[in-house]
Amino acid sequence: MVELLIFLVLISVGYFFGQRSEAKHFRSIRARELELMGLITHNGKHPLGVDQLGTVTESRLVYGSVVISVDYFKGVVAGLRMLVGGNLGTYETLVDRARREAVLRLKESCTDAAQIINLRIETSAISKGNQNQVGSVEVLAYATAIYTQ
Amino acid sequence: MFITNTEEIAGKKISVCHGVVSGSTVRAKHAGRDIMAGLKNIMGGELTAYTELLTESRDQAIQRMEDQAQQMGANAIVNVRFSTSSVTAGASEIYVYGTAVTVE
Amino acid sequence: MKYQPHLPEQDNEQNINVSHDQPLKTLFTLLSGVLAIIGVGYGLLGVCVDFAVDHLPDEVETLIARQFSLSDPLSNVVQDEFSAYLQTMLRELQQCAGVGYPLQLTLADVDQINAFAIPGGQIVVFTGLIDQLESENGLAFVLAHEISHFQNRDHLRSMGRGVVIMGLSALITGADSVITKLILPTITLGEMRFSQSRELAADRRALAILNCRYGHVGGGTEFFSGLLSHADNAAGSVWGHYFDSHPKAMARVERIQQQGDEAGFRVGAVTRLMAR
Known about the structure:
- The complex is a heterotrimer of chains A (149), B (104) and C (276).
- Chain B has 104 residues and is α+β, with helices and mostly antiparallel strands.
- Chain B has two helices and four strands; from the N terminus they run ββααββ.
- Chain B has a single domain (2-103), classed as Hypothetical protein apc22750. Chain B (Translation Initiation Factor IF3), CATH 3.30.110.
- Chain B starts with a strand and ends with a strand.
- By secondary structure, chain C is an alpha+beta fold.
- Chain C has helices at 23-54, 58-66, 81-97, 127-132, 136-151, 154-173, 178-214, 222-235, 241-245, 249-263, and strands at residues 2-3, 77-78, 104-108, 115-118, 122-126.
- Chain C is elongated.
- In chain C, 32% of the residues are buried.
- Residues 189-194 and 233-242 of chain C have low confidence and may be disordered.
């Protein structure tokens, strides 16, 4: 009985705070993406429009990384979903948030760059909770920022 | 939709660059398949359930990336890269990204 | 070359990289589905376990029982003249019940009102329970009740189901997984219901044992009548499950009396309990 009660409390706390912070995070991501929309970003090796680029003063390695944790509710839903099979929707939002946040942080670190090229994104689960549970997702985004006069 | 992992598309000229597009999935097989895979581990051989899972995830991720490129009005994706990680045991997580472009 | 950026969710487009299902709805559908499967599996297992338990030879039972001992040995075991007197009582009742294998009784100096049986033929009685009782017959009924549990192999039954379902869940999802933790309380709830019907059967048998030992069933309800006045202090105790899983005291007193009448047992004068 006690276990059931603890479970219910954890899952409702997880749902309430988890969903609230996720919605808030998505709002912030959308706003910042819109703000940084003009910054040219792609994952090719060469800068776009080499002829109009002007004199390149600096090219520098830039990074952005983030670690986002799963909440109890997401863990339970995903655990159940893994019994049945199919898309783990609650983890998909988690990794989506993490990746977009990492890229945003990368862009924020070089807002005055002319272009960001050769963008690469790596994901890893740094802390696995007990056995099968996801602890948190770590995303590292790295690229080369090109500065011109 | 042209999808390549090179900088250019041979024989085409890129006119517009739309920025980075990506597709990601986290998928799992039902528990029965997990148990069968566990048994297969004893005897060795291909884990068809997991090969299937990986194929499904990859196809879905590419589909999502394509859909995103389509929304942007692009007709090709260049420089495609895959990145896989094990977010959780028994589930496959695939991330694919590239640069959406319009070619003539 | 032009640069024409476009955001993933621009102009109210949906986010392509996530599944758009309602998390709460998903939770409820999956949870009810999984619980339904567990429920059906539990029922089927119950039938299998009951069958196996009924056909188990005595030697195997003793063998299984030997694997179990108190994981946390009782610290305040009392060994005096009174506990010897309880042992004698147990022997006499055991003879009436016709239980072949040896039973052991442990008297523990604990204030809580409780008695329970551990697989392996051990019966633990708390002094708190002794203090509640005035007649030997009342205590004899409690002991006879636990003996009946051994005789019906109720411990094997409940253990069998619990062990099998936990094993299955651990195999599928891992021992520490959320699902296994989720199943744990469901099983305990199921077992409580399960044991209530077994409790009534044990009561019926205990009356017969009592009648054999004393020639009447007087004092049989003393423990549960006493409980009615102490139900409050027991609810929060560690051994509270004894009261949860045992049918409500009031209804139980009535049931026992009814069972006694049906069997045609006489109610006679009670023997006083030896002073402790």
